[in-house]
Amino acid sequence: MPETVEKNRIDNLKAPLLVSWQITRDCDLACLHCCTESAPGKRLSDELDREESMKVVGENGISLDDIWADGPLSYRSVALPHMPNFFMINGPYGPSGSTSVVGLIEVHVDYVMGCLDYVLQHGCAISPCPKRSAALIAEIRARSARTIWATGGCKSWYLDRHGVPLLNPLSLDQLGEEMRHPDFSDFLHHTLPDRQTA
Ligand code: SF4
Protein backbone atom coordinates (compact mmCIF):
# COMPACT_ATOMS: atom_id res chain seq x y z
CA MET A 1 0.00 0.00 0.00
CA PRO A 2 1.44 3.46 -0.89
CA GLU A 3 2.81 5.37 2.06
CA THR A 4 0.37 8.30 1.64
CA VAL A 5 -2.67 6.03 1.77
CA GLU A 6 -1.42 4.37 4.94
CA LYS A 7 -0.87 7.81 6.52
CA ASN A 8 -4.39 8.98 5.63
CA ARG A 9 -5.88 5.93 7.21
CA ILE A 10 -4.20 6.44 10.54
CA ASP A 11 -4.85 10.20 10.61
CA ASN A 12 -8.56 9.65 10.12
CA LEU A 13 -9.17 7.00 12.72
CA LYS A 14 -11.32 8.44 15.49
CA ALA A 15 -11.01 5.55 17.92
CA PRO A 16 -9.41 2.15 18.22
CA LEU A 17 -11.25 -0.51 16.24
CA LEU A 18 -11.15 -2.97 19.11
CA VAL A 19 -10.43 -2.61 22.80
CA SER A 20 -10.39 -5.55 25.18
CA TRP A 21 -10.39 -4.90 28.90
CA GLN A 22 -9.42 -7.35 31.58
CA ILE A 23 -10.77 -5.46 34.55
CA THR A 24 -8.31 -6.69 37.16
CA ARG A 25 -5.81 -9.41 37.94
CA ASP A 26 -6.36 -8.86 41.65
CA CYS A 27 -8.71 -11.83 42.04
CA ASP A 28 -9.89 -13.13 45.43
CA LEU A 29 -8.90 -16.62 44.29
CA ALA A 30 -5.66 -18.09 43.00
CA CYS A 31 -6.69 -21.02 40.81
CA LEU A 32 -3.82 -23.12 39.52
CA HIS A 33 -5.40 -23.25 36.07
CA CYS A 34 -5.79 -19.46 35.80
CA CYS A 35 -4.66 -18.37 32.35
CA THR A 36 -4.13 -14.75 33.48
CA GLU A 37 -2.18 -15.66 36.64
CA SER A 38 -4.66 -13.68 38.72
CA ALA A 39 -4.50 -13.87 42.50
CA PRO A 40 -4.75 -11.60 45.54
CA GLY A 41 -2.28 -8.73 45.23
CA LYS A 42 -1.53 -9.42 41.53
CA ARG A 43 -3.00 -6.10 40.38
CA LEU A 44 -1.09 -4.71 37.39
CA SER A 45 0.47 -1.30 37.87
CA ASP A 46 -1.49 0.23 34.97
CA GLU A 47 -4.90 -1.22 35.84
CA LEU A 48 -7.76 1.25 36.14
CA ASP A 49 -8.98 1.46 39.73
CA ARG A 50 -12.69 1.25 40.50
CA GLU A 51 -13.27 4.98 40.28
CA GLU A 52 -11.48 5.23 36.94
CA SER A 53 -13.30 2.18 35.57
CA MET A 54 -16.70 3.60 36.38
CA LYS A 55 -15.88 6.69 34.31
CA VAL A 56 -15.88 4.72 31.05
CA VAL A 57 -18.48 6.46 28.91
CA GLY A 58 -20.82 5.45 26.11
CA GLU A 59 -23.27 7.46 24.03
CA ASN A 60 -23.88 11.05 25.13
CA GLY A 61 -21.27 10.75 27.84
CA ILE A 62 -23.29 8.25 29.92
CA SER A 63 -20.87 6.47 32.25
CA LEU A 64 -20.90 3.00 33.79
CA ASP A 65 -21.58 4.73 37.09
CA ASP A 66 -24.73 6.28 35.58
CA ILE A 67 -25.90 2.99 34.09
CA TRP A 68 -25.44 1.13 37.37
CA ALA A 69 -26.67 3.95 39.65
CA ASP A 70 -29.83 1.97 40.53
CA GLY A 71 -28.13 -1.43 40.71
CA PRO A 72 -26.52 -3.93 38.36
CA LEU A 73 -27.98 -3.86 34.85
CA SER A 74 -27.07 -5.74 31.70
CA TYR A 75 -28.61 -7.26 28.63
CA ARG A 76 -28.32 -11.02 29.03
CA SER A 77 -25.06 -10.41 30.97
CA VAL A 78 -23.20 -9.66 27.72
CA ALA A 79 -24.09 -6.09 26.75
CA LEU A 80 -25.11 -2.76 28.26
CA PRO A 81 -27.65 -0.15 27.20
CA HIS A 82 -26.07 3.13 26.04
CA MET A 83 -22.76 1.38 25.38
CA PRO A 84 -22.59 0.65 21.64
CA ASN A 85 -20.43 -2.33 20.72
CA PHE A 86 -19.50 -2.90 24.36
CA PHE A 87 -19.63 -6.61 25.11
CA MET A 88 -18.92 -8.50 28.31
CA ILE A 89 -18.44 -12.08 29.36
CA ASN A 90 -20.25 -13.04 32.56
CA GLY A 91 -21.48 -9.53 33.29
CA PRO A 92 -24.20 -8.60 35.83
CA TYR A 93 -26.56 -11.55 36.52
CA GLY A 94 -24.22 -13.85 34.58
CA PRO A 95 -23.11 -16.23 37.35
CA SER A 96 -25.63 -18.88 38.22
CA GLY A 97 -24.34 -20.32 41.49
CA SER A 98 -25.51 -23.77 40.43
CA THR A 99 -23.79 -24.53 37.15
CA SER A 100 -20.35 -24.45 35.59
CA VAL A 101 -18.95 -21.00 34.89
CA VAL A 102 -17.06 -22.54 31.97
CA GLY A 103 -20.36 -23.52 30.32
CA LEU A 104 -21.77 -20.04 30.95
CA ILE A 105 -18.71 -18.42 29.43
CA GLU A 106 -19.03 -20.59 26.33
CA VAL A 107 -22.65 -19.49 25.87
CA HIS A 108 -21.67 -15.84 26.34
CA VAL A 109 -18.69 -16.05 23.98
CA ASP A 110 -20.85 -17.63 21.24
CA TYR A 111 -23.44 -14.89 21.68
CA VAL A 112 -20.86 -12.09 21.56
CA MET A 113 -19.21 -13.64 18.50
CA GLY A 114 -22.64 -13.60 16.80
CA CYS A 115 -22.95 -9.89 17.67
CA LEU A 116 -19.45 -9.14 16.38
CA ASP A 117 -20.16 -10.95 13.09
CA TYR A 118 -23.30 -8.86 12.73
CA VAL A 119 -21.66 -5.47 13.36
CA LEU A 120 -18.79 -6.31 11.04
CA GLN A 121 -21.18 -7.42 8.32
CA HIS A 122 -23.39 -4.35 8.65
CA GLY A 123 -20.72 -1.79 9.51
CA CYS A 124 -22.75 -0.51 12.43
CA ALA A 125 -22.71 -0.34 16.21
CA ILE A 126 -25.41 -1.90 18.36
CA SER A 127 -26.52 -1.41 21.93
CA PRO A 128 -29.37 -3.19 23.68
CA CYS A 129 -32.64 -1.34 24.14
CA PRO A 130 -32.71 0.09 27.71
CA LYS A 131 -36.37 -0.91 28.26
CA ARG A 132 -35.82 -4.45 27.03
CA SER A 133 -32.70 -4.79 29.21
CA ALA A 134 -34.60 -3.56 32.27
CA ALA A 135 -37.50 -5.93 31.51
CA LEU A 136 -35.14 -8.91 31.22
CA ILE A 137 -33.48 -8.00 34.52
CA ALA A 138 -36.89 -7.72 36.21
CA GLU A 139 -37.75 -11.18 34.85
CA ILE A 140 -34.45 -12.65 36.07
CA ARG A 141 -34.89 -11.08 39.51
CA ALA A 142 -38.44 -12.40 39.84
CA ARG A 143 -37.29 -15.93 39.01
CA SER A 144 -34.13 -15.64 41.07
CA ALA A 145 -36.13 -14.55 44.13
CA ARG A 146 -37.92 -17.91 44.04
CA THR A 147 -34.73 -19.99 44.08
CA ILE A 148 -33.19 -21.70 47.10
CA TRP A 149 -30.59 -18.92 47.27
CA ALA A 150 -33.34 -16.54 48.43
CA THR A 151 -35.83 -18.87 50.09
CA GLY A 152 -33.55 -21.24 51.98
CA GLY A 153 -32.78 -18.87 54.84
CA CYS A 154 -29.06 -18.72 54.13
CA LYS A 155 -27.07 -15.55 54.05
CA SER A 156 -24.60 -15.26 51.20
CA TRP A 157 -22.71 -12.70 49.21
CA TYR A 158 -25.03 -13.37 46.27
CA LEU A 159 -27.91 -11.58 47.99
CA ASP A 160 -28.40 -7.89 47.30
CA ARG A 161 -29.80 -5.44 49.84
CA HIS A 162 -33.32 -6.60 48.98
CA GLY A 163 -32.44 -10.24 49.62
CA VAL A 164 -32.55 -11.11 45.90
CA PRO A 165 -29.63 -13.16 44.54
CA LEU A 166 -27.56 -11.48 41.83
CA LEU A 167 -27.69 -14.74 39.93
CA ASN A 168 -29.09 -16.12 36.73
CA PRO A 169 -31.73 -18.69 37.73
CA LEU A 170 -31.60 -20.60 34.43
CA SER A 171 -30.00 -23.99 33.99
CA LEU A 172 -27.16 -24.17 31.49
CA ASP A 173 -29.47 -25.89 28.98
CA GLN A 174 -32.13 -23.20 29.36
CA LEU A 175 -29.55 -20.44 29.04
CA GLY A 176 -28.03 -22.07 25.95
CA GLU A 177 -31.49 -22.30 24.40
CA GLU A 178 -32.39 -18.67 25.20
CA MET A 179 -29.06 -17.37 23.90
CA ARG A 180 -28.63 -19.70 20.94
CA HIS A 181 -28.91 -16.79 18.48
CA PRO A 182 -28.66 -13.06 19.15
CA ASP A 183 -32.01 -11.31 18.77
CA PHE A 184 -31.10 -8.11 16.97
CA SER A 185 -34.61 -6.72 17.33
CA ASP A 186 -33.64 -6.15 20.99
CA PHE A 187 -30.82 -3.82 19.88
CA LEU A 188 -30.68 -0.21 18.81
CA HIS A 189 -28.58 0.31 15.69
CA HIS A 190 -26.14 3.19 15.42
CA THR A 191 -24.32 4.33 12.31
CA LEU A 192 -20.58 4.67 12.59
CA PRO A 193 -18.68 7.79 11.61
CA ASP A 194 -17.06 7.43 8.20
CA ARG A 195 -13.56 6.05 8.24
CA GLN A 196 -11.24 6.73 5.37
CA THR A 197 -10.17 3.38 4.04
CA ALA A 198 -8.44 4.28 0.81
S1 SF4 B 1 -9.46 -18.62 37.10
FE1 SF4 B 1 -10.85 -16.90 37.50
S2 SF4 B 1 -11.39 -17.13 39.68
FE2 SF4 B 1 -9.52 -18.35 39.34
S3 SF4 B 1 -7.79 -16.97 39.83
FE3 SF4 B 1 -8.18 -16.83 37.62
S4 SF4 B 1 -9.56 -15.06 37.39
FE4 SF4 B 1 -9.62 -15.70 39.56
N-to-C CA distance: 9 Å
Strand content: 5-15%
Bound heterogens, unique: iron/sulfur cluster
Number of helices, counting only DSSP H or I runs of 4 residues or more: 7
In this structure, how is the largest beta sheet organized? 2 strands, antiparallel
- Percent of residues in helices comes to 25-40%
Instruction: Enumerate the strands of the largest sheet in spatial order, edge to edge or round the barrel.
Output: 1-2
Q: How do the helices and strands follow one another from N- to C-terminus? A: HHHHEHHHE
On the 0 to 100 scale, the average pLDDT is: 87
CATH-assigned fold name of the domain at 72-191: FAD/NAD(P)-binding domain
**Top CATH class of the domain at 72-191:** Alpha Beta
Shape: globular
List descriptors.
FAD/NAD(P)-binding domain, 7 helices, two-stranded antiparallel ribbon, globular, mainly alpha, 2 strands, 198 residues
What does this structure look like?
Helices cover 33% and strands 5% of the residues. With 198 residues, it is mainly α. It has a domain at 72-191: FAD/NAD(P)-binding domain (3-Layer(bba) Sandwich), CATH 3.50.50. A two-stranded antiparallel ribbon has the order 1-2. Iron/sulfur cluster (SF4) is lined by residues 27, 29-31, 34, 36, 38-39.
Q: Would you summarize the structure shown here?
A:
Helices cover 33% and strands 5% of the residues.
Reconstruct the topology from this structure:
Elements: H1 3-12, H2 50-53, H3 64-67, H4 101-122, E1 124-128, H5 130-144, H6 148-151, H7 172-178, E2 187-191
Antiparallel strand pairs: 1-2
The structure holds iron/sulfur cluster.
